[in-house]
């Protein structure tokens, strides 16, 4: 049982990584990118191609794939999302959905239906584990994923609060018109935010491919997981996505314990239950602005300080 | 020496023409008071000078440089800063962060956070407060400070007294006083005619989008401005002509 | 047609729209007798066309008129098929099961709407997808379905295959005509005025006292019912039920493609889109994955460059209105103001 809980929590690290880009883009540009999961899978294929074809280790491969993802994010915002968002709030949903179909099927065309994994290219990391007292094993990769999630969220929060570019992104998210009046190029700030979001998507793709297998149509489920984690985490701070990821991971792990099909069902049911509770008991919007709020930071900083 | 030149400017909101054929030149160091009834086009004019609203026709020149179609974020780098109506602070961010955002354009100059705090000492204890939690006067001071942080050559102030109690307005103007006498070029929109004429060197009155009066303050009485404000001068000139 | 003193005329039925309605009636009559002359393959293809028209019209009702973009409408398609299997297995006549299944699905969508309609924009879109994914999993748990192996509508086998084909064809044709008729009537009713007010500006509609949520709920349930009919009919034509084919997001992709290309928020647009999709599928469907890439890319391009679709463009350029769901105002001068867009 404790084993299941630990696995669930660590799985949450992966969900936090894939969710943070989705909620980040939503909070800055008010766009839910339906191609989010497909782009993560595309990054995974990129790494797989580098590893299998050119023998480049996935970790070194990230040095190539992440800048490429940043460029894709920039271009995506500049040439697709920006134009589409001018046509109203609903159009970007359709645009990004169409994009997801294109990406998924291009990958199918290119790589076929076979499932792939990066596990063969990372040596023993994919199965190595540490033994905890009490005979519990925790996978090194899972711990690494969790550590990455924490570092990523912390880094993102630091960037947004302490750096001029981060402030510019927050200002644009709050009021693009006034951002222009203080000298911020809102288009650039949005493109930068999209580039950052895509870097996190690239990292998510790497972990997806290392910890499990993927195929050209894995993007849809990944989008759902990201969305669920972001929604469960709710409004508040980026750290909410970590909590959301952990809740989702726990629900899935416990669900799998109950029934062979319970993994997915557990996740979906908990997601809907949280949604239900929030809509009917609290009555707040579900993803609100993933706040980069000062009070949010202050709370977290206080929390970090209070822990020895 | 002319710093800002506005030539035959037309600005529209869709079908509504808010600013009609407005022209004026502004000399360096001028303090121009823009007065007029609600809906006369003052705010629209200021916003189009700041680049937040692009004009339908006409030209805007800054130091003989064309900037009619330059977007807002580049105008501030060229030296035009607007303190918008309703202050428009980033309410989720602190006073300090709002002020730092004013530096985005990177124009060199004397304004620093510390100087803003010494000009508006009421902000000092609120440095790390979110601007959404400030009082109206503190918010206005932050908005002015944010604009000053860009070291503007021309400062556009849109209704700084809106929604503030008379006492607080007095304080804001007192704090502005050093600025008003320091040689910065300023265009201010102000509902209180007496206050506007007290600080300005020149007054322009707008009516239904047009300039109906443009004069140095010293050559004009408050009564004349009031007449222009309500469009009564036309009746007079009409009678005089007939 | 109402004339107001100073030469302004308010009209609903233009000559072209009267002509159009006449042609629709003729076309339906021709379709009805077509099986007498058509071969089996052609009948099957036309049945598919009717199902596509239903899907497009229903997705358009939801997104184009209700402002609710869903990427989870496959849930109703799948449920329509699933309940048909269930009811037929319980001994109900398979043809009756088709419509009983759609009614059950429509009934389920009502409580669902109380939950889902509280979500906005993209949250509603993906939220529906989650609902669909979960429903897919739950259907898989039903032993009758045997997981992804699936099952088939065996009770249809008692009918001779020729008869079966024609009956399904007629059912599809009748369902399409009825659903389009319901939607048309709805859009022309008082609720239709509310629907169009919501489409144009939701906040303004609310402040005018339009019952936004109730109106959206009506569209949500109608779309669920219609799509369930389509799913049940699809099951009838193919007889096999594999959950992952029916609960596939591909169905929503088709719906989005048809409506985007035809013209979102245009009654005629969805029909045009379905016909185009049918033609494209007939010619390029065999290209497999490139065909899907083409569909996705076309949807992206339309959303970026022609967001009102082909019918929107035709309306704008030629000022035609075939199936009027609004009013138009004719001024005495040469200008025409179109009241309904």
Automatic annotation (TrEMBL), chain A:
InterPro entries (UniProt xref): ABC_transp_permease, BCAA_transport_permease
Family: Belongs to the binding-protein-dependent transport system permease family. LivHM subfamily.
TM annotation in the entry: 6-24, 31-50, 56-76, 88-108, 136-160, 191-210, 230-251, 263-287
Keywords of the record: Amino-acid transport, Cell membrane, Membrane, Transmembrane, Transmembrane helix, Transport
Stored PANTHER family: AMINO ACID ABC TRANSPORTER PERMEASE PROTEIN, BRANCHED-CHAIN AMINO ACID TRANSPORT SYSTEM PERMEASE PROTEIN LIVH
Compartment(s): Cell membrane
Membrane topology: Multi-pass membrane protein
Entry protein name: Branched-chain amino acid transport system permease protein
Pfam family, one: BPD_transp_2
Species whose genome carries this gene: Rhizobium herbae
Automatic annotation (TrEMBL), chain B:
CDD domains associated with the record: ABC_TM1139_LivF_branched (cd03224)
Residue ranges annotated for the ABC transporter domain, each copy included: 4-233
UniProt cross-references to SUPFAM superfamilies, sorted A to Z: P-loop containing nucleoside triphosphate hydrolases
Keyword terms: Amino-acid transport, ATP-binding, Nucleotide-binding, Transport
Protein origin, superkingdom: Bacteria
Annotated Gene3D superfamilies: P-loop containing nucleotide triphosphate hydrolases
MF terms in GO: ATP binding
PANTHER family: HIGH-AFFINITY BRANCHED-CHAIN AMINO ACID TRANSPORT ATP-BINDING PROTEIN, HIGH-AFFINITY BRANCHED-CHAIN AMINO ACID TRANSPORT ATP-BINDING PROTEIN LIVF
Family to which the UniProt record says this protein belongs: Belongs to the ABC transporter superfamily.
UniProt-recorded name of the protein: Branched-chain amino acid transport system ATP-binding protein
The species this protein was found in: Rhizobium herbae
Taxonomic placement: Bacteria, Pseudomonadati, Pseudomonadota, Alphaproteobacteria, Hyphomicrobiales
From TrEMBL, chain C:
Keywords: Cell membrane, Membrane, Transmembrane, Transmembrane helix
Compartment annotation: Cell membrane
Transmembrane segments: 20-43, 50-83, 95-117, 124-146, 166-187, 218-236, 256-280, 289-311
Domain of life of the source: Bacteria
InterPro entries, sorted: ABC_transp_permease, LivM-like
Topological category with respect to the lipid bilayer: Multi-pass membrane protein
Pfam families noted in UniProt: BPD_transp_2
PANTHER family reported in the protein's UniProt record: ABC TRANSPORTER ATP-BINDING PROTEIN (PTHR30482:SF17), HIGH-AFFINITY BRANCHED-CHAIN AMINO ACID TRANSPORT SYSTEM PERMEASE (PTHR30482)
Protein name (database record): Branched-chain amino acid transport system permease protein
């Amino acid at each position: 049982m404790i084993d299941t809980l630990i696995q669930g929590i660590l799985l949450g690290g992966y969900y936090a990584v894939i969710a943070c880009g989705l909620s980040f883009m939503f909070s800055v540009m008010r766009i839910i990118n339906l191609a989010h999961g497909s782009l993560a899978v595309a990054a995974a294929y990129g790494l797989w191609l580098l590893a299998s074809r050119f023998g480049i280790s996935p970790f070194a491969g990230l040095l190539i794939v992440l800048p490429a993802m940043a460029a894709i994010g920039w271009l995506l915002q500049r040439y697709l999302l920006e134009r589409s968002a001018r046509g109203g709030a609903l159009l970007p949903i359709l645009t990004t959905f169409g994009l997801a179909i294109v990406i998924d099927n291009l990958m199918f065309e290119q790589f076929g239906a076979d499932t792939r994994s990066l596990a063969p290219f990372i040596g023993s990391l994919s199965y190595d584990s540490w033994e905890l007292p009490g005979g519990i094993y925790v996978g090194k990769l899972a711990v690494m994923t969790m550590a990455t999630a924490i570092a990523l969220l912390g880094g993102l929060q630091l960037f947004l609060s302490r750096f001029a570019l981060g402030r510019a992104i927050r200002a644009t998210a709050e009021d693009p018109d006034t951002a222009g009046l203080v000298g911020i190029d809102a288009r650039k700030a949005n493109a930068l935010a999209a580039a950052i979001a895509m870097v996190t998507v690239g990292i998510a793709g790497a972990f997806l491919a290392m910890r499990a297998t993927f195929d050209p149509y894995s993007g849809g489920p990944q989008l759902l997981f990201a969305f669920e984690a972001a929604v469960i985490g709710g409004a508040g701070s980026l750290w909410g996505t970590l909590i959301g990821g952990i809740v989702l991971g726990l629900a899935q792990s416990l669900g799998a314990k109950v029934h062979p099909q319970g993994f997915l069902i557990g996740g979906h049911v908990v997601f809907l239950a949280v949604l239900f509770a929030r809509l009917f008991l609290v009555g707040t919007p579900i993803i609100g602005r993933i706040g980069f709020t000062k009070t949010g930071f202050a709370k977290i900083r206080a929390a970090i300080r209070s822990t020895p | 020496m002319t710093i800002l030149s506005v030539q035959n400017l037309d600005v529209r909101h869709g079908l509504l023409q808010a600013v009609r054929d407005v022209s004026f030149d502004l000399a360096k160091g001028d303090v121009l008071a823009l007065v007029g009834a609600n809906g006369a086009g003052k705010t629209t004019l200021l916003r189009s000078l700041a680049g937040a609203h692009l004009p339908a026709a006409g030209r805007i020149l800054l130091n003989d440089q064309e900037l009619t179609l330059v977007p807002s974020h580049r105008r501030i780098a060229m030296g035009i800063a607007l303190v918008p109506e309703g202050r428009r602070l980033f309410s989720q961010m602190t006073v300090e962060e709002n002020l730092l955002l004013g530096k985005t354009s990177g124009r060199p100059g004397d304004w620093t956070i510390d100087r803003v705090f010494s000009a508006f000492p009421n902000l000092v204890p609120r440095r790390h407060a979110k601007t959404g939690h400030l009082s109206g006067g503190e918010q206005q001071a932050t908005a002015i400070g944010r604009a000053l942080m860009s070291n503007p050559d021309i400062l556009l102030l849109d209704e700084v007294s809106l929604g503030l109690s008379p006492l607080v307005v007095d304080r804001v103007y007192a704090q502005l006083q050093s600025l008003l006498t320091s040689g910065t070029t300023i265009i201010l929109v102000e509902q209180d005619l007496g206050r506007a004429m007290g600080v300005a060197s020149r007054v322009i009155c707008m009516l239904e989008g047009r300039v109906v009066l443009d004069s140095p303050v010293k050559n004009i009485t408050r009564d004349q401005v009031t007449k222009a404000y309500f469009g009564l001068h036309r009746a007079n000139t009409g009678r005089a002509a007939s | 047609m109402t004339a107001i003193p100073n030469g302004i005329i308010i009209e609903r039925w233009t000559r072209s729209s009267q002509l159009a309605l006449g042609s629709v009636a003729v076309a339906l009559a021709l379709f009805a007798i077509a099986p007498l002359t058509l071969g089996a393959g052609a009948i099957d293809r036309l049945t598919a066309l009717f199902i596509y028209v239903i899907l497009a019209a229903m997705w358009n009702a939801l997104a184009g008129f209700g402002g609710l973009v869903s990427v989870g409408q496959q849930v109703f398609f799948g449920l329509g098929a699933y309940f048909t299997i269930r009811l037929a297995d319980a001994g109900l006549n398979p043809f009756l099961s088709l419509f009983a299944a759609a009614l059950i699905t429509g009934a389920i969508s009502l409580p669902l709407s109380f939950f889902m309609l509280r979500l906005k924009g993209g949250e509603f879109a993906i939220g529906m997808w989650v609902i669909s994914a979960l429903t897919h999993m739950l259907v898989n748990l039903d032993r009758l379905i045997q997981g992804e192996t699936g099952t088939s509508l065996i009770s249809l086998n008692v009918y001779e295959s020729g008869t079966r084909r024609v009956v399904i064809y007629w059912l599809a044709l009748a369902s399409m005509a009825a659903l389009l008729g319901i939607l048309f009537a709805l859009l022309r009713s008082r609720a239709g005025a509310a629907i169009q007010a919501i489409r144009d500006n939701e906040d303004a509609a609310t402040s005018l006292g339009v019952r936004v949520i109730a109106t959206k709920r009506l569209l949500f349930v109608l779309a669920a019912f219609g799509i369930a009919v389509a799913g049940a009919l699809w099951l009838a034509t193919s007889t096999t039920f594999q959950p992952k084919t029916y609960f596939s997001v591909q169905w929503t992709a088709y719906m989005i493609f048809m409506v985007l290309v035809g013209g979102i928020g245009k009654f005629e647009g969805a029909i045009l889109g379905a016909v185009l999709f049918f033609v494209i599928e007939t010619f390029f469907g065999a290209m497999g994955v490139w065909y899907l890439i083409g569909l996705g890319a076309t949807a992206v391009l339309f959303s970026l460059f022609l967001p009102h679709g082909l019918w929107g463009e035709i309306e704008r350029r030629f000022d035609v209105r075939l199936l009027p769901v609004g009013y138009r105002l004719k001024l005495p001068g040469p200008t025409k103001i179109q009241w309904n867009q």
